[in-house]
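re: ur question from yesterday

yeah so i grabbed the chain u mentioned. its 346 aa long if i counted rite. heres the sequnce exactly as i have it in my notes:
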Amino acid sequence: MLYVSAVTVVEGGTASFDVAVYGYPLSGDPDAPIPVTVARTDGDGDLTVREGASLTFEAATRHIPQQVVLAAAKDADNEDGTATFTVSAPGLEPVTLVVTEADQDPLAPVFTTVPVTRTVTYFPYLLGVHARGRPAPTYALRTAPSGMGLDALGNLTWIPTETGEVDVVVVASNGLQPDAELSFRLVVGEDQPPVARIIAPLQDERLSGPLADFSCECVDDVGCARVDFRVDWLLLETREGPGPTYSVGGAPGRWDISGLEPGPHFLDVVVTDSLGREAMGETVTVCIACPEPDAGTAVDAGSVSFGDEGDDIIDPWSCDCAATGVAPAAWVGLGLLGLRARRRRN
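ran it thru and got these structure tokens back, copy pasting raw so excuse formatting
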């Protein structure tokens, strides 16, 4: 129904978008005209529909776009406003549109950047700084370590060579006071090796079928860059990218195990970080096409013939059990013990 999902209207001005009807209402006469309404359903009241709040589409021309004009009234603040407009028609799914009012009042710079405050030696430190303001602000370094640079677009770059802490101050100005200041302390440490862990399959897991999951995760202080998957200490596949998770085949469950011999196999991974440091994860042992563990087989107790109990059967009627306080209920237990003894003899 809509050709766009977002529109920007300059404060005090107008902007337009097109609407057309595709499909038929779920009920009613499919050849009847379709009424369409456009209305603000949430957000800034300064944004309104100037033209096209009610549209009618004939059956033969419903696919031909009609124009809707939005307006943004001037206001006293210097902030941008947003509103949601809904385009709806009976029997059709409504569609929403996000509209932004672009304020034109002068605005002193305000930083929106949250700086990254930790890095490591010999790894490029990159930070894009940004400040809102009208007119657009320019940037300058007020305090910085040796070798740090800042271009006109706000890209802060540096390659530290020593550990320690340095102070950084970036200033944004556009002729309106006050200037904006972004101040932070950057901590530089030694690069640490990455840490790798196989997350699938699990240790001693039994695998079957043509496909299985072989995945790992990588954690590093500057970022992971590559992982080598190995089976029985031979390279299976290399995956590149920032991670932190990697999988054989590019996604979980895509490891083809159909060509592996049945039996135990050893899986490991070697991860590499952005500075080229490597680390190997703990090896995981799996078994492919292996039967489940044997739960055990019941031992045949043998056959028992009546009248062949042997002398090791206790006769509760011939013993002096009553005199010794053994209840008749216990005689059954004694009889079972005698039966077991007889079976062992067989």
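noticed a couple things. Residues 6-102 form a domain with the Immunoglobulin-like fold (CATH 2.60.40.10). also Residues 297-346 have pLDDT under 50 and may be disordered.
anyway ttyl
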